[in-house]
Amino acid sequence: MNLDLHLEFLVEETSLKVALNHLLPKILNNKITFNIHPFRGKDDLLKKLPDRLQGYKAWMPQNYKIIVLIDEDRQDCKELKQKLEKIAQNTGLVTKSSKIFDENYSVINRIVIEELEAWFFGDSAAIHQAYPKISTTLGEKAKYRNPDKITGGTWEALEKELQNVGYYAGGLSKNEAARNISEYMQPERNTSSSFQVFYHTLLELQS
């Protein structure tokens, strides 16, 4: 384990930064430092990513790793991952997926399927703790049992569930919901497969 490991997170929006600020201390040991850099949406991240990675390459120490987190948003997951991989490789940076044997890598690309809110549905107990009017059986509903396969949009689904019991009549505040729910999330119990991939990626970095 590298005690000086530092992680640079590139995320597409502020709500994911808000959630990670609560989640990462629950996953990472206190020897690991991190920064989270939000962009103005998915298109903004994809547009600026080549220059950002090129900038990192010019000065980044060996103990740094870059983790790119981006929503699937009903895109083809494999195509989106390939796009991220190609951007990194075009800058000369080695990704975790492309490394050969024990070769050192600098970039980890991870897809949030389908949106951040799917990670929230993966921990329905946390939603209930943040918003007590929400039923403790929310996660048992057929459409929420597999958070990564919720149809019609996970953000819309979360807003609807919260509004049905009297929260956010004027519209869901993504940052506020991210802050409230992530405070209670327990990574090991999350039922979102994409969250578990992300979670175990971070655990692997510490092994």
Write up what this structure looks like:
- The chain is α/β, with parallel strands linked by helices.
- 44% of the residues lie in helices and 13% in strands.
- The chain is built from eight helices and four strands, in the order E-H-E-H-E-H-E-H-H-H-H-H.
Q: Give the averaged pLDDT, no decimals.
A: 94
Biggest β-sheet: strands ordered side by side in the sheet: 2-1-3-4
Total domain count: 2
Identify the CATH class of the largest domain: Alpha Beta
Form type: globular
What summary fits the major beta sheet? 4 strands, parallel
CATH topology type of the largest domain: Rossmann fold
Secondary structural class: alpha/beta
Secondary-structure arrangement, i.e. CATH architecture of the largest domain: 3-Layer(aba) Sandwich
Cα Rg: 17 Å
What's the total number of strands?
4
Series of H and E elements: EHEHEHEHHHHH
Low-confidence stretches: none
Quaternary organisation of the protein chains: single chain
Kindly report how far apart the N and C termini lie: 6 Å
Helix content range: 40-55%
Count of discrete alpha- or pi-helical segments spanning 4 or more residues? 8
How much of the sequence is in beta strands? 5-15%
